Structures are given as structure tokens and as C-alpha cells.
């Protein structure tokens, strides 16, 4: 199963970005979104080190709510 993680961009350097989610920071590639206007503060879906889709803050929040529910259900 493949899983994309919503992350928020905190730094941009060319086609590389620093992103954060749930207190975890990662360096990711923006190459696949090179024709999309991307700015610090934007949310992106990250899969295997690549931003594959720009997201709204609401989409990112909803996705994390679902992930949190899955983790909670797994713990019980």
C-alpha cells in the first residue's frame, strides 16, 4: 500500500523544500510540481520524498484527522 503524507512547506530552495508534519521535518523534491506556484506555508502531499500534489489547508487537516482515527482504532 502506498501512502502520501500531507506536509507544510517551511523553506524552499529551487526544486527542494523543507516540510513539516506532526513535528517531523523532511527534505522533499518539488520537481513534480515545477509548473505549480508553490510558496512557503503551502501544503503538499508527499510520497517517497516527492511533493505530488498541492493541497488546501482543509484537505491536509482532513487527511490528518483520518490518519489519527486509523491510528486510534489500531491501538484499541
Overview of this structure, please?
- It is a single chain.
- The protein is α+β, with helices and mostly antiparallel strands.
- It has one domain (5-75): SH3 type barrels (Roll), CATH 2.30.30.140.
- Helices cover 25% and strands 42% of the residues.
- It contains 1 helix and 5 strands.
- A 5-stranded antiparallel β-sheet has the order 3-2-1-4-5, covered by helices on one side.
- Strand 1 (5-13) and strand 2 (16-21) form a beta hairpin.
- The mean pLDDT is 94.
Shape: elongated
- Strand residue content: 35-45%
Report the structural category: alpha+beta
Arrangement of strands in the largest sheet: 3-2-1-4-5
CATH class: Mainly Beta
Main β-sheet: number of strands, strand sense, barrel status?
Answer: 5 strands, antiparallel
What fraction, in percent, of the residue positions are helical? 25-40%
Give the rounded overall mean pLDDT: 94
Helix count equals 1
Radius of gyration, in Å, reads 13 Å
- Termini, distance in Å? 22 Å
Query: Oligomeric state of the chains?
Result: single chain
Quickly give the CATH architecture.
Roll
Q: How many strands appear in the DSSP assignment?
A: 5
CATH fold description = SH3 type barrels
What is the element string, with H for helices and E for strands? EEEEEH
The overall number of domains is 1
Low-confidence residue ranges: none
Break the fold down into its secondary structure elements and pairings.
Elements: E1 5-13, E2 16-21, E3 24-29, E4 43-47, E5 50-55, H1 57-75
Amino acid at each position: 500500500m502506498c501512502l502520501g503524507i500531507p506536509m507544510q512547506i517551511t523553506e524552499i530552495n529551487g526544486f527542494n523544500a523543507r516540510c513539516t508534519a506532526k513535528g517531523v521535518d523532511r527534505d522533499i523534491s518539488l520537481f513534480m510540481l515545477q509548473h505549480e506556484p508553490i510558496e512557503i506555508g503551502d501544503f503538499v502531499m508527499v510520497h517517497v520524498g516527492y511533493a505530488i500534489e498541492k493541497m488546501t489547508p482543509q484537505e491536509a487537516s482532513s487527511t490528518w484527522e483520518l490518519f489519527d482515527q486509523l491510528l486510534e482504532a489500531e491501538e484499541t
